[in-house]
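User: Fold both of these, please.

Assistant: Here is the first one.
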Amino acid sequence: MEISQALKNIKCVSPDLAVEEITCIRANREQAIPVMLEYIQKVSGIKSKKPWRYDAHFYAMYLLAEFRIKEAFPHLIQYLEFDYDFTEYLLGDSITEGFGSILASVATIDDISRIKTVIENTSLETFSRNATLKALQVLFTEDVYDRDDYMTYLRHLLETCHDDPTLLAFIICDCENAGFCELLPAIEKLFDAKLVDEQVTDYPFVRDRLMYSVEADAKEKLARNKRNRFVSDIIGLLKTWYYFSEKYKSDMCAKTKKTTAKKKQVKVSSDLDDFAQYIRDNSSRVSIMFLAEKREPVYTLSDMLEAKTVAALRRLGSLYKVTNCSRKKKAEIVQLLADKLLDTDILKEHLMLLKPPEWALFRKAASANHLIDDKASIDDLLMLHVFGIMSIFYYYSHFYFIVPAEIREMFSKLDEGFSENKEFADLLNDYAVAAANLYGVITQDDFVELFNSQNDRKTDIDEMFGTLIRFVYMDHGYVFWDEYIVSDEFEEDDYKDVEMYAGMAAAKPRYLPNREEFLKYSQWGYIEKTPQFSRLRDYIGKNITDDEKLADETAEKYYFATMRNAKPQEFIDILKESDILPGNEKTKALMRLVSDLSNNVRLWHNNGNTQYELDMRKGAHPTPPKNEPVRVIKIGRNEPCPCGSGKKYKKCCGM
């Protein structure tokens, strides 16, 4: 394998461990190191384009650690200082399973002070701080960090890190692992003061380990664990991960089979027409009834929280990252949650995430003591309920939607520009969804230019990324990948096709309709009702099936199949799945209409253009008759005939 290909391949991570690529990079390390440093810098650079769903840093950070490349340290330690959700996405399981070892492998004695700033940063999450704590442990195990200095620093942490009971428990575990029995009196005081998360460790266990351990033996035991040493063999290390195991692949296969079985089960149950119709007619009411509290409404935040069960409060506490909820009494959880919910910045962030219907419902409910609405949709209120900023009560046969009085007051005091910024963020998100649906791939620079060309309020790369990243978290159908915004449909192939599609599209002019038409593509499942599509739909409805709904569904399936450049077999399968057997002549006519449609759908690799439009630009000036295709879908002679006869095409319609 060529080194350039190996470096390209590691930009995507899949359950197939990149053994060949790693081996090639090891053999060409001098050539690979600058490229891998660029990979990790792209993520950590504050002013650079911040990629999302960008996997190149994963293999790069392990390889740079194995090579002991000290230049990687300042970039990697910044990963722990990002917003924790972003850090967790970037590092995944490695944040607890090995990032400390990676960090130590690229650190020097001079970097220890920088590591300490992260450990002592109380604004960071527990696991980010603990990863740097583990880096110190590795440096101690590898004899880079002096024993006395290490113990002195752990004592300092025991005396000062009282803000986080879980981190304090991790610090105590490190004292125990190192065999520092001199620290036992300080540890005992912390347990007596109830400052330690005893779900992580308890005093009797720590006491027994430290009282009866020999420090030299403790350090030798530390050294036997590869996670407490410098990174040496990443292939051997990563092979132990569940994600790269055969079991993971078999589990995913089993999960797919279960999903298929569930779909079949749903299909069978849908035959119960009366029951299915009742559910369709009452699904909104039934779902909201499940969320609603069956009692007289209350209007203050404290009363609403008190009305919830302890289990519901703990779920809400988990969302708001309230530590040790499982060990706190109800009154304590209520007070901690009230403090979180009354944080203006948190409220703003959650309101920013609301979809337009949810935002409209919130504003309506926040304008009065309560809103009575028996026709509200579950889709319009679920996030409001999840965030705890609106409660639902079912009282005297009506649904009451209530925003707590304290939150209503906070909302009324938000600066005048908030609503404008919220609407701008929603518009930017709509543009990103539309671009992902219409183009599949677009560079961030091109996206900003496109948006600015159609809107009075302009944006730039940094504002665009900071605004859209929150929507990426909520799975709006697009992601950031390298310098692109791409459809998340590329995830099925681990984004391997992104650069291919980007290259094909770059050679063609971009299709850009007016603002109103462009934003139609932000609607999921939007179909441009061209004359070709209408003719296909009409033909199916008049000649193939009398079921209007089935005719609509079949035409839509053909539309999206042509967008994907589907193989002939898929067009055949669409008919079979719908139990449609149209016969020879009707099948031939249908395929002609499908071929006509395929020349007039907007394709990602055509930069949003139809093939017909591109041919026109080239001066071909094709003028296809209504019933004649420009580009015929070829069916192999030995493939099953699309008419459904079960015969090969050459012995049926192809004769």
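And the second sequence with its predicted structure:
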Amino acid sequence: MDHKYGSAVTSIEPDAESQSPENVPGQAASGGGEESLSKSDTKPVSQPQGILVINETGKIAREFRISGDAVHIGRDPQMDVVLGDPGVSRTHARILRQGEGFLLEDLGGRNGTRVNSQRLPQRGTYILQHDDYIQIGRSVLRFLVRMSHQLLQRVRSEAAATGSVSFAEVRDESSRRKDSLCLFRLHKLEASLIVTEAELAAQCHPLESDRVLIGRDPESDIKLNDPTVSANHAEIVYNRDGFHLVDRDSTLGTFLDGVQIRVAKLTHRSFVKFGKQEGLFVIHEEGKEPRVDSFPLRNYLIELFEFKEGEIRKTFQLSRECGLDFAEQLILGGVLTPAEWWASVSEFERRFPMSRSSWIRRLLSRLKA
């Protein structure tokens, strides 16, 4: 991908007044602001805190906190969230707060709005869930929710008393999509395949069943448009032994960590290729934040990609502050391709095989002392 990032984006201050979300753009309710998101700044709130992590092609990833009743998104400079991509309409979409939930609404943008790779109907709506991925043009906005423990307990208690489905059941930060019953969810796991396509933003495809078909066929669970991908190219299967990648007699083969395979076990951050289509497979345990990558790894990436130093530093900081996966954010933000990440980390681990264990030993020795 030819994603080259520029300088850091200037913070956007929230509007001074909150007005009706039906007002014209520029006079909309205060949507929030783009700023550094530090855990030390996070305080218990009386309502859920919506956050957008914005990965815009050509710019460093940034955060936007939703504090008002409506957030307008588009290319117009008066939007709350301004996206400079020419594929974004001037008034493209908006997010409305509805009680303790958030509703995404397409405003008729000519190129449409996608959520988790599924296109919304024109002027359609979608109830956002924690960890949804919104694609507008070539920009990817990750939607996160933070909720105080007190609020979470109150909402659940009210829902139990009324017999209704509570916002907390689908928007608790420690849980994700639970609408599909599958074995890996019973094992408290979530998995996604992040793929990059030429001239398009990276796409995150959350797995929704224990068997996911991948290919160019429109009926595939994960549809890839690259001509080197076969109609029924491969599948990801989960059983009690974990996730497995299975080739389905594809023409140009299926590869795992650089090796052509027929059947192989997947692990967190496995590098996969379907023909020439690159991807990164990620696994997360429910309720646990992703592992924190080391500063030496960050510095090594900066050495390899000097012209992307600013983007790597910003993405590393963002990942640590928001509890996000460093590799995912680098790829979703277009800073590195899956192949660049895999090759760099493989070489780092080869050159410094004891760096991680040495760090752990030093920490344990300090704790014992």
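The CA atoms of residues 299 and 325 lie 17 Å apart.
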